[in-house]
Amino acid sequence: MVAKKAAKAPAIHTFKWKGINRKGAKVSGELQGESVAEIKAELRKQGVNVTRTQKKSKGMFSFGNKIIPMDIAVVSRQIATMLGAGVPLVQSLQLIAKSNEKAPLRELMTSIGTEVASGTPLSQTLRGYPRYFDDLYCDLVDAGEQSGALETIYDRISIYKEKSEVLKSKIKKAMFYPAAVLTVAGVVTMLLLLFVIPQFKDIFEGFGAELPAFTLFVLGISDAVQSYWYIILAVIVIAVMLFKKAHQKSQKVRDNTDKFILKIPVISTILDKAAIARFARTLSTTFAAGIPLVDALISAAGASGNFVYRSAINNIRSEVMAGMQMNVAMKTTATFPDMVSQMVMIGEESGDLDGMLSKVADIYEQQVDDAVDALTSLLEPMIMVVLGVVVGGLIVAMYLPIFQLGSVVG
Q1: Are residues 241 and 384 in the same domain?
Q2: How high is the pLDDT of residue 10?
Q3: Can you give the CATH number for the domain in which 403 is found?
Q4: Is residue 220 part of a domain?
Q5: SS3 29
Q6: Which of 126, 166, 178, 359 has the most CB atoms less than 10 A away?
Q7: pLDDT above 90 for 343
Q8: Phi and psi (nearest 5°) for 389?
Q9: CA distances from 293 to 320, 364, 400 (A)
């Protein structure tokens, strides 16, 4: 039975204050609390006559102060380490809150620690912060609390979060390079068409001879870009915004995008391996935590990150519910490589499915790492080749009439 969601604890804010101490000296600093009244009361206990208090503003440019998934991974590792050292849970949360340099994370951990200290189970408390702790995270903590092995579960959670964030970083890196190549090539081309080629056009007008077809083609593009650059820019911006909106609102658009991405050469290989790694890592972690395989497959499907794999895993779940072994069900989907289904078969026969899935995740995470490094090495010279072809083509188009200048003069 799912526990009822606890009421969210009052938000903890950081306040700047100024005042005068018992010796008459001016003092200032920062304190955390729920309200200005609480801050003033605390400072009066310390013998400070408060002259000014102000809630600390996060500011427009405080992006680096925002809680990111890697912060949650670090906190998870800290909790696992402290629990492993025998530090009680409430004290662990309080120590992490006090020692953290990032104010939003400090406030979050203070709120969680306050709720847990009042008797609310940790898993129930975390469900009040879905922005930072998803259902999988909370389910794992809940399993640890119910089994009395929260220390072991948190060690698994920390490994899972660390591996997930590293994998996510590698995928972003893999996607960045192709985008960088296209962006640089596009910017350079636009600059040439807008500012460089028009200079040549003035020269060509005095030639009095017919220009080569390639040169006329490039000059035509340059004229179009100069005349309608704002329309071209508007179309690109609107197209991007419409796609982004459709991607957010339409499941069908997201699914078709996932299918298309898996057909892009080179990139598709990395994304395939990453999806398998996420599937194996999630299933290994949840199954080892004592969550039934059928329920664990739900989490694994959501964590795969791609419609094709999500559909395949849901089909596997349906077959497993009907009594089929998972390795057989994986073969029927024709989505997972034979090596993966064979390792799952070994894990099922040996009774060490979670251990075998962990090995699968390790293998594919390493393959993703190698593939991203290979892509990086390939694209670095490719950037030069693409720019060379684009810039070189435009330069050749402009110099062809000059090469023919001798025959024109003759």
Answers
A1: yes
A2: 52
A3: 1.20.81.30
A4: yes
A5: strand
A6: 126
A7: yes
A8: -65, -45
A9: 9, 21, 69
Distance of CA 165 to the CA centre of its chain: 7
Which of 31, 56, 81 is the endpoint of a domain?
56
As a whole number, the mean pLDDT across the chain is: 83
> Is residue 90 a part of any domain in this protein?
no
Rounded CA-CA distance 156/174 in Å is 27
Of the pLDDT bands very low, low, confident and very high (cuts 50, 70, 90), residue 372 is confident
What pairs with residue 27 in β-bridges?
Answer: 19
In a domain, 66, yes or no: no
Q: Are residues 187 and 330 in the same domain?
A: yes
pLDDT score for 62: 44
Sheet with 26-33: list strands edge to edge: 26-33, 13-20, 49-55
CB 86 within 8 A of CB 56: no
Beta bridge pairs of residue 19: 27, 50
Q: How many domains does the chain have?
A: 2
The CA–CA distances, whole Å, from 81 to 89, 148, 218, 229, 406 equal 11, 17, 64, 57, 80
Whether 404 shows a pLDDT value over 70: the answer reads no
pTM, two decimals, is 0.68
Q: What are the C-alpha distances in Å from 184 to residues 119, 174, 224?
A: 56, 16, 21
Dihedrals φ, ψ of 120, to 5°?
-80, 130
Cα 358 to Cα 99: distance, rounded to the nearest angstrom: 33
H/E stretch holding 59: none
- 385, containing H or E segment: helix 353-403
Query: Does 120 fall in a domain?
Result: no
Closest CA to 118 of 13, 34, 6, 38: 6
Query: Same domain, yes or no, for 47 and 181?
Result: no
What percent of the chain shows pLDDT beyond 70?
Answer: 90
CA–CA dist 110, 11 (Å, integer): 9
**Residue range 15-63, pLDDT digits in tens:** 777 888 877 777 777 776 777 777 778 788 778 888 877 766 544 334 4
Q: Give me the domain span that covers residue 253.
A: 163-410
| Cβ-contact 299, 136 below 8 angstroms | yes
